[in-house]
């Protein structure tokens, strides 16, 4: 199948080129005009079409347009989002003025749903959409950040402050334990592969956020079930900007940003450190640590962080050639990280054209996105090293050895370096050259054929691909301490390695769409039936681990590995509308996945939903107060198979590598190991119930929705213990257990002021979500504590989180700290919870969870004449974080390392005086801290100059500040850390940006 | 119109055809990993799976030094057999304390472990992992299976011998389960893999099974000292029988000291001899010690890397003021030391078996978590006899003898005494003095004229300390949990205290009790 798709794609590229050849048009009657709103403000971007022709244009930022009218045509159709379309008869006038009536809400918005679009007013499921005007603003590298805080039920947490590191997205809390909790992302009809690509911190960062028009989030099952197998965690449909019929519009925007570290980890200052060592370390464990003190005063965090400068530039041309809308865009982004040496450059290209043929019967949408990202990854190990490196030591040693950086030395060791001691943080950064180049291209061709003899029937075919190649090299000089004399014989050092990975995801879809108005029975039918084939192929190339003089440390067994999985689906959807009041939707999808054995391969995922448009009932129809009221009810079943092994429903034998050989006699053998497997693995299923109300009052100046949902996941893909002796792996992902999520989402859109000069929009949203694991094992053993996970530093193999029955996913599993009468924790004294007189693992208890109970978003934007201003805030409540910096560095055992060197640590050691001796302190609930927060994500202001000069339509200047403030009780660096463990978090910078946007006409 | 409909039908059928043909794409296979049928197609393939049965003792997984571990739920570096077994057998005794804070590690010496202890869980699953590997191999290497794959002649004979050794290795692991956990799930090659719940075998069931298997395979194993280095032969079989029979009274309540004597003596008479220098037992080139070693776990810092095994021992014992090269490593991990009980057994400075590092170390332990508290032990050294280090300073070459001749002398003597033998019996005293003479560098200055059980226990510690036998010895002598013998920090108090007798057995890990409803937890847990 792959072979069939790729040549088609190549032909599409040729088509793109054809469309660029000419943009000229013939001279005809020209009419100029302006389009304004009722209040007199110009309407930019309105579409002006000559009725009955394919001729059209768009208004400029000042609302003006100019259009050539063919002979025998006299009527213009003017439309714009948020306004009722209007027809104007030209009557031979040279200019016309058009005033559009607002449709005072977004309810006419067309919302992208799976395999089609729908008007928002017709939706039966829980679907939320964010478009360009509501996106987060500022220096945004990865598209996921655009919707942070914008939608109820959708939590977007940026993974770190590193450039392009992306976000973790959770819709209604996710649905799984060990399978994926990431939503499915579909870009212009191409579902993306959730797996990453070598050389890119996050695959979404390969897409230019500036090209995105809208995000549609399908939250409940009835909306998402059409995506069946991959929809359990919700679906995000991203639509890129498209051309519109009309004169070419050229837009250029550029932004310049400066990012600065906002807060550093609170460690002992050099003088605090000296006095601590002199007070406590003169005889610690029989050793005088004070003799290790140096004379320098170094703030290592100042050494590793920098001001990060970034520019982001985009140029786009859009318009229509004859009847063919097109949009081309190029982008160049250059972003530094605040961690020195971190850098990302991205060149991106986007193109889409939508030619029509056979009298508009055949519509083809061609989308192509391509990008090249060049990254230098900073060695993030420096973040932790800067916290712990001795502040009384200098940055440089004065010698050439180890790149000139000061390092802990040991004259008795072969390399001269102190074994296992931390390395110079700045040396870690500057000596490592981890460079990558990642190319990604996503494209598709959507054919929409309106059948000639049956125009109600559309035949659709979608051919798509998503390919990426990540190529990288890691070079560390042989002088660098991090790779000094690292070969077994200590004669070869440095790193000179390369990596290469290719992802290829191909898509073939075919579906029929039938719509019919049956006015005799006031009914409308919209039916879809289709087929999809999608294949995910990764090729991992293997290279030897080399020193800089190309000495082989280890060599791979095979030149490459090609994991692959395939999904085949059949689906159908029926929408039935009666009298514009009652809406029924039913979907069914069956999916087959290559990840399951042939008997369990296919899963069936149905859904149904009902909506009652109460507003259209006679008793409300004429109400001036209630402008919209709709009730929605839905149920659906979705499946999941992401995040599990591709082949392990049967056992395979795997050859050990060349560093895992075993000697028998005089020979070393690579051995074959049978792998764990689980034959009966099948689809994880999530049943979702959803009830919601959409409302609007006072001409929709107050509008919003409230949803209640309940999700029950069964056959949980859950890593469970296998009975000893029955499998080659003591844990395996099986379908055991169940979990429920329930919650309430509220969103409220307000327009407090709307007049000639001022419009003020406010969006508020809030979500309450609870999650509870209801079953984890085949037998319900009350003594089974649960499945621990979440490794922390400070003890090898130590975990802090647990999935336990009756608890939310990711509860902390800790000892209950005992405090003295002054409220200070008493080290190594914990509550004996099972009262057996001893403190051991039986006294651990589940405490709080990393997930918030409530999360909120608030956005406000004000337009006053040519000024605009806005802000976005987010808050999480009820989320807790394990402060691993406190637990692993704020202890004397860290400062006076048993290997006899000094380390700095969290200043919290002065409060607790914890020694860190023993194996229990690190599991104290003292370190689990309330991480509820309120954060202002950005605050922005802009000013637009209209009609600046000839050929320049408008110029907009913007100023933006990101990560403005955080209010929290959390005692560590940043309360917002995905996953519940705060350990050497890459700080989020505070970023100041100025931007310029120029539209040429 | 009709034509159009016809075209539509045709195209729909064509598309339908494409779709159906695509369904076979749902059968995907890995690129490099192979099925059982492929791996067992050749004699070489059999050998490479057979190697894994031994490699599962010495390595932590499929990728050195870490990255693709055999055992889940525990850090891979902790998950090899020797490291886990050493900790379970030595840390709760007078012979060892550890300075680290890895969760659960301090429970051993403090004697307050629970059924959720991650190290006990790791050890249990390592034992059963090896049993499962052996079961699979035994199943795949039946005469019928081998013949069915067209393998005949000397290849088939070799595979037959692999199969016998697999049965030995399985019996060895069941003996470890019997010793540590008492009872446990019982699975053999006759059980099909997959989701079934194995039945629990009692300690005496396991004893009967282990001894009957060892007796059954005895004739089929290689003649002592004729097999490849690192592979089990009849002497290994006898040595395990001797060890198991010595502890029979603990395991089953039935004394089998006569059998212990018989099998110890069979080994003694099999042509082994003590190497001359005790201090060369645990060195990087101790593969030279085949005169004394009966069965070894083989380690090689260049070809087979992990953070367990003797890499762990040579690094963890190194710390304080000790240079890395004292134990042949790049730098120590500052973990393991001993209580004063062990050095105090060496009252005679001429006994060369006292391999301690004392500079900067105090013999008393004020705080177990401080490396300088307690003498360091430097028995395992990644150094060759000529003093140069092994092939790598980061991974050890030191092989670990699961059985060596010295233990057989001591088993014979103890069984002889427990059987009512005379304290001045010439053979028994003679065996004892062989160890003494080696310990005294060939001198007879340490020779004794009579032996008793307490002397044997002390001598076992002097001879076999840190070789993974101490807990079993103390239990056999009734000294592990009781007040009859206290050592520093026994039970978590400085002067030592007795603990509950149920701690003579380790708990079956809670995770398996939960996964397998047939299992009944040991009393007290």
SSE topology sketch:
The complex is a heterodimer of chains A (1001) and B (525).
Chain A: H1 2-19, E1 29-37, E2 47-50, E3 56-58, E4 64-69, E5 75-79, E6 86-89, E7 95-100, E8 110-113, E9 116-119, E10 127-131, E11 154-158, E12 167-171, E13 184-187, E14 190-191, E15 212-218, H2 221-224, E16 235-240, E17 249-261, H3 270-280, H4 300-304, E18 308-321, E19 324-336, E20 343-353, E21 356-357, E22 362-377, H5 381-388, H6 425-430, E23 432-450, E24 457-476, E25 495-518, E26 523-541, E27 545-546, E28 552-554, E29 560-561, E30 564-578, E31 582-593, E32 602-613, H7 618-621, E33 626-640, E34 653-655, E35 661-664, E36 667-670, E37 672-674, E38 684-697, E39 702-714, E40 717-721, E41 731-735, E42 738-754, E43 758-775, E44 787-791, E45 799-803, E46 811-814, E47 817-819, E48 825-830, E49 845-849, E50 854-864, E51 867-877, E52 880-883, H8 884-889, H9 892-895, E53 896-897, E54 901-902, H10 909-912, E55 928-930, E56 933-949, E57 952-968, E58 981-982, E59 989-1000
Parallel strand pairs in A: 1-7, 13-16, 52-58
Antiparallel strand pairs in A: 1-4, 2-3, 2-5, 5-6, 8-9, 10-15, 11-12, 13-14, 15-16, 17-18, 17-59, 18-19, 19-20, 20-22, 21-22, 22-23, 23-24, 24-25, 25-26, 26-29, 26-30, 27-28, 30-31, 31-32, 32-33, 33-38, 34-37, 35-36, 38-39, 39-42, 40-41, 42-43, 43-50, 44-45, 45-46, 46-49, 47-48, 50-51, 51-56, 52-55, ...
Chain B: H1 2-22, H2 36-39, H3 43-58, H4 81-90, E1 97-98, H5 106-110, H6 118-140, H7 143-148, H8 153-180, E2 184-186, E3 199-201, H9 203-217, H10 234-246, H11 248-252, H12 257-268, E4 293-297, H13 309-316, E5 336-337, H14 341-345, E6 356-357, E7 376-377, E8 400-404, H15 405-418, H16 426-439, H17 453-464, H18 470-476, H19 510-515
Antiparallel strand pairs in B: 1-5, 2-3, 4-8, 6-7
Helix pairs in contact in B: 3-6, 3-8, 4-6, 6-8, 8-9, 9-10, 10-12, 10-15, 12-15, 15-16, 15-17
């Amino acid at each position: 199948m792959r072979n069939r798709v790729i040549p088609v794609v190549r032909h599409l590229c040729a088509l793109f080129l054809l469309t660029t050849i000419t943009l000229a048009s013939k001279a005809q009657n020209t009419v100029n005009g302006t389009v304004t709103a009722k209040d007199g403000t110009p309407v930019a971007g309105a579409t002006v079409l000559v009725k009955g022709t394919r001729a059209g244009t768009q208004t400029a930022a000042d609302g003006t347009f100019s259009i050539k009218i063919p002979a025998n045509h006299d009527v213009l159709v003017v439309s714009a989002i948020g306004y009722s379309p209007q027809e104007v008869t030209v009557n031979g006038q040279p200019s016309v003025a058009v005033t559009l009536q607002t449709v005072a809400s977004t309810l006419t918005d067309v919302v992208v749903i799976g395999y089609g679009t729908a008007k928002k007013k017709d939706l039966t499921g829980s679907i939320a959409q964010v478009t360009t005007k509501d996106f987060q603003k500022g220096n945004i590298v990865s598209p996921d950040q655009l919707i942070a805080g914008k939608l109820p039920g959708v939590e977007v947490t940026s993974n770190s402050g590193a450039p392009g590191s992306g976000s973790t997205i959770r819709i209604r809390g996710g649905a799984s334990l060990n399978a994926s909790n990431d939503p499915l992302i579909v870009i212009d009809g191409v579902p993306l592969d959730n797996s990453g690509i070598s050389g890119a911190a996050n695959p979404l960062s390969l897409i230019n956020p500036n090209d995105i028009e809208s995000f549609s989030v399908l939250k409940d099952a009835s909306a998402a079930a059409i995506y069946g197998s991959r929809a359990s965690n919700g679906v995000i449909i991203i639509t890129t900007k498209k051309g519109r019929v009309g004169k070419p519009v050229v837009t250029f925007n550029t932004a310049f940003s400066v990012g600065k570290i906002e807060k550093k980890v609170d460690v002992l200052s050099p003088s605090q450190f000296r006095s601590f060592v002199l007070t406590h370390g003169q005889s610690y464990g029989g050793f005088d640590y004070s003799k290790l003190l140096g004379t320098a005063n170094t703030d290592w965090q100042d050494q590793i962080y920098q001001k990060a400068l970034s520019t982001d530039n985009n140029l786009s041309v859009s318009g229509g050639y004859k009847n063919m809308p097109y949009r081309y865009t190029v982008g160049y982004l250059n972003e530094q990280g605040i961690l020195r040496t971190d850098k990302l450059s991205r060149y991106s290209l986007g193109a889409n054209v939508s030619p029509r043929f056979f009298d508009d019967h055949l519509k083809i949408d061609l989308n192509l996105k391509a990008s090249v990202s060049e990254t230098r990854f900073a060695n993030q190990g420096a973040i932790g090293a800067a916290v712990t490196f001795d502040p009384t030591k200098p940055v440089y040693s004065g010698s050439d050895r180890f790149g000139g950086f000061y390092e802990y030395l040991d004259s008795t060791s072969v390399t001269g370096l102190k074994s296992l001691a931390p390395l110079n943080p700045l040396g870690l950064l500057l000596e490592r050259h981890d460079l990558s180049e990642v190319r990604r291209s996503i494209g598709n061709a959507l054919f929409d054929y309106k059948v000639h003899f049956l125009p109600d029937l559309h035949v659709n075919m979608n051919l798509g691909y998503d390919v990426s190649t990540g190529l990288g090299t890691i070079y560390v000089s042989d002088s660098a301490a991090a790779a000094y004399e690292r070969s077994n014989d200590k004669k070869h050092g440095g790193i000179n390695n390369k990596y290469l990975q290719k992802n290829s995801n191909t898509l073939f879809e075919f579906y029929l769409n039938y719509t019919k108005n049956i006015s005799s029975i006031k009914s409308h039918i919209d039916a879809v039936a289709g087929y999809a084939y999608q294949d995910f192929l990764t090729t991992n190339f293997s290279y030897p681990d080399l020193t800089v003089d190309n000495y082989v440390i280890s060599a791979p067994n095979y030149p490459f590995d090609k994991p692959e999985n395939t999904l085949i689906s059949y689906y159908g959807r029926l929408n039935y509308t009666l009298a514009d009041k009652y809406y029924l939707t039913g979907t069914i999808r069956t999916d087959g996945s290559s990840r399951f054995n042939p008997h369990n391969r296919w899963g069936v995922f149905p859904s149904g939903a009902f909506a009652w448009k109460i507003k259209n009932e006679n008793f409300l129809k004429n109400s001036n107060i209630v402008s919209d009221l709709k009730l929605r009810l839905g149920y659906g079943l979705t499946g999941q198979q992401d995040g599990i092994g591709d082949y392990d429903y049967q056992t395979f034998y795997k050859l050990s590598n060349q560093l895992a050989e075993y000697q028998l006699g005089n020979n070393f053998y690579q051995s074959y190991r049978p792998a764990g497997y689980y034959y009966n693995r099948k689809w994880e299923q999530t049943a979702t119930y959803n009830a919601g109300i959409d409302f609007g009052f006072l001409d929709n100046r107050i509008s919003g929705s409230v949803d209640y949902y309940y999700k029950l996941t069964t056959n949980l893909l859950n890593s469970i213990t296998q009975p000893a002796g029955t499998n080659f792996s003591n844990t395996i992902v099986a379908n055991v257990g169940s979990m429920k999520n329930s919650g309430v989402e509220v969103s409220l859109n307000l327009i407090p002021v709307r007049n000639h000069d001022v419009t003020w929009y406010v969006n508020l949203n809030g979500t309450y979500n609870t999650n509870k694991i209801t079953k984890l094992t085949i037998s319900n053993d009350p003594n089974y504590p649960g499945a621990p996970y979440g490794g922390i530093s400070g003890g090898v193999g130590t975990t802090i989180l647990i999935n336990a029955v009756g608890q939310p996913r990711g509860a902390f599993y800790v000892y209950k700290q005992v405090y003295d009468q002054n409220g200070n924790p008493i080290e190594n004294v914990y509550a004996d919870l099972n009262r057996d007189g001893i403190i051991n693992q039986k006294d651990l208890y589940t405490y709080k969870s990393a997930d918030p109970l409530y999360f909120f978003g608030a956005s406000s934007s004000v337009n006053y004449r040519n000024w605009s201003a806005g802000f976005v805030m987010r808050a999480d409540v009820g989320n807790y974080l394990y402060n691993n910096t406190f637990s692993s560095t704020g202890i004397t055992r860290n400062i006076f390392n048993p290997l006899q060197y000094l380390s700095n640590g969290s200043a919290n050691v002065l409060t607790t005086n914890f020694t860190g001796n023993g194996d229990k302190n690190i599991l104290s609930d003292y370190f689990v801290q309330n991480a509820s927060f309120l954060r202002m994500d950005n605050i922005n202001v802009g000013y637009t100059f209209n009609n600046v000069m000839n050929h320049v339509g408008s110029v907009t200047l913007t100023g933006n500040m990101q990560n403005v403030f955080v209010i929290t009780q959390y005692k560590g660096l940043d309360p917002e850390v995905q996953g519940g463990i705060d350990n050497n978090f890459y700080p989020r910078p505070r970023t100041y940006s100025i931007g310029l946007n120029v539209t040429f006409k | 119109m009709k034509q159009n409909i016809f075209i539509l039908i045709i195209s729909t059928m064509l598309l339908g055809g494409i779709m159906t043909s695509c369904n076979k794409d749902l059968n995907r296979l890995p690129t490099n990993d192979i099925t059982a049928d492929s791996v067992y197609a050749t004699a070489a393939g059999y050998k490479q799976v057979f190697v894994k049965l031994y490699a599962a003792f010495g390595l932590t997984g499929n990728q050195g030094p870490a990255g693709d571990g055999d055992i889940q739920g525990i850090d891979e570096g902790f998950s090899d057999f020797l490291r886990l077994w050493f900790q379970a057998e030595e840390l709760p005794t007078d012979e060892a304390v550890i300075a680290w804070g890895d969760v659960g590690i301090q429970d051993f010496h403090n004697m307050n472990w629970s059924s959720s202890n991650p190290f006990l869980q790791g050890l249990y699953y390592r034992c059963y992992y090896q049993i499962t590997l052996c079961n699979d191999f035994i199943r795949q290497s039946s005469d019928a299976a081998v013949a069915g794959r067209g393998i005949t002649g000397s290849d088939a004979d070799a595979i037959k011998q692999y199969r016998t050794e697999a049965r030995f290795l399985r019996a060895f692991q069941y003996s470890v389960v019997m010793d540590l956990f008492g009872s446990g799930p019982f699975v053999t090659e006759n059980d099909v893999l997959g989701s079934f719940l194995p039945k629990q075998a009692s300690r005496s069931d396991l004893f009967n099974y282990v001894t009957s298997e060892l007796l059954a395979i005895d004739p089929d194993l290689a003649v002592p000292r004729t097999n490849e280095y690192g592979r089990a032969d009849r002497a290994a079989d006898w040595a395990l029988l001797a060890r198991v029979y010595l502890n029979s009274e603990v395991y089953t309540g039935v004394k089998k000291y006569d059998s212990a004597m018989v099998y110890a003596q069979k080994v003694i008479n099999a042509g082994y001899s003590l190497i001359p220098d005790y201090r060369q037992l645990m060195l990087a080139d101790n593969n030279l010690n085949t005169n004394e070693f009966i069965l070894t776990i083989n380690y090689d810092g260049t070809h087979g890397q992990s953070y367990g095994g003797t890499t762990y021992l040579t690094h963890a014992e190194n710390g304080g003021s000790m240079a890395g090269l004292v134990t042949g490593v790049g730098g120590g991990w500052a973990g393991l030391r001993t209580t004063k009980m062990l050095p105090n057994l060496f009252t005679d400075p001429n006994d060369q078996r006292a391999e301690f590092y004392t500079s900067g170390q105090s013999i008393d332990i004020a705080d177990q978590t401080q490396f300088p508290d307690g003498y360091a032990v430097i028995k395992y050294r990644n150094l060759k006899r000529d003093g140069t280090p092994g092939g790598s300073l980061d991974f050890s070459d030191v092989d670990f003898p699961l059985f060596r001749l010295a233990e057989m002398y001591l088993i014979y003597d103890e069984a002889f005494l427990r059987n009512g033998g005379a304290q001045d019996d010439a053979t028994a005293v003679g065996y004892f003095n062989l160890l003494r003479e080696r310990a005294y560098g060939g001198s007879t200055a340490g020779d004794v004229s009579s032996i008793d059980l307490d002397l044997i226990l002390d001598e076992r510690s002097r001879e076999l300390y840190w070789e993974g036998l101490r807990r079993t010895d103390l239990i056999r002598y009734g000294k592990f949990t009781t007040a009859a013998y206290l050592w520093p920090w026994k039970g978590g108090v400085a002067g030592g205290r007795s603990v509950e007798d149920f701690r003579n057995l380790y708990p079956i890990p809670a995770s398996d009790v939960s996964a397998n409803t047939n299992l009944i937890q040991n009393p007290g847990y």
